[in-house]
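Comment thread on ticket #2218

A.B. wrote:
> Attaching the input chain for the structure job we discussed in standup.
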Amino acid sequence: MAPNDSAETNGTAARPGRRKAARYIVPVAVAGVAAATIGLVPALASSGDPDLPKITAQELIEKIAASDTEQFSGTVKISTDLGIPSMGGMADSFLSGAAKGGDGKDASSADPQAKLTELASGTHTLRVAADGPDKQRLSVLDDTSEYSLIHNGDQVWAYDSASNAVYHAEGKGKAPHGKEQAAPEGVPTTPKALAEEALKAADGTTSVTVDGTARVAGRDAYRLVLKPEQKGSTVESVTVAVDAENGVPLKFTLRPSSGGKAVVDAGFTSVDFGKPAASSFTFTPPKGAKVTEADDAKAKGHEKEARKAAEKAQGDLGTFEGEGAPKIIGKGWNSIAEFRTPGGAPLPSEASKDVPAEAQQFLDALGDKVTGKFGSGTVFKTRLINALMTDDGRVYVGAVTKDALIAAANAG
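C.D. wrote:
> Ran it. Output below, let me know if you need it in another format.
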């Protein structure tokens, strides 16, 4: 087992290799938000700790940054436990609404922007494959159905076997920033994508160590552990199992400061770094399938309406900062985003009849009424991301505790 070599971040000048690695390193408040968009699995059982050469944390980070592996295929188990109470009928209402266009008409049930929101909870099994930046495939496996998203050059296909629905888009070109993933940008679906988000900024607020070795998906790996050095974070640690041979992250685990099982855990259960079969990236719509073209959705004005709504919301937010961007309080793991709701509107209440009863029940289950120098408001909590909405329409959100949010609001 490799010894616990550490490379605690302290803001000193970086070596050239460190600068190269820095492009992979973030405040985990941001990583937590990204991770919260998918669902991830209990820690994979270790089959033994391999005896590997000694390596420092800095060397391991550089090994991740230097990894040029672009071909792989395998199975990923993912799960999340944010501690959010059941939404009951509201969940079905929300998900069905997400699958509709801006005018309320049904869009394709295979549309990835709507379908992949289902990864926000529960445990899921994914099959993934990549052959460079132009070819990726991601399949979500259920007991009786399968959803697949295929990117091949300028063609993107998505197929939902449960509804026999197909979604097709052209002219997309390469995946954003050359990332080997077929999912929409901002939806990490592999340990590598999660690790890259969690390793973007060790900025003097993080302890980074190598905590031994592990076996993941039959491969030898080092365990890179990140821990916040600040008080007030909801994150206890982030552990990334890194392939000892090629530097590819094989497993990602985020544990909360409140204890208990991992909030986010994603890992390969099998992986092959050979070239996937070309057939993995080809798709022909099955007979009788309903095909929705992305251009048709545009013609219906869905994207135009969404763009207008986004521009209006940004304009409203601009009244707070002048530029539409939220104000960032603090740094590193304790970063808190502060912004104002559109028009400074307070949280809808049951008395105002602005929110359905089921939605109000869900909000009440999540929220704690709080007061302070800022006035009064409600803290909405999960095991990772918490948010304070004041009664005068200000919002403070981050991977921090309730007390940290109240302190930020009082200071503001």
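A.B. wrote:
> Thanks. Noting for the ticket: DSSP finds ten helices and 18 strands in the chain.
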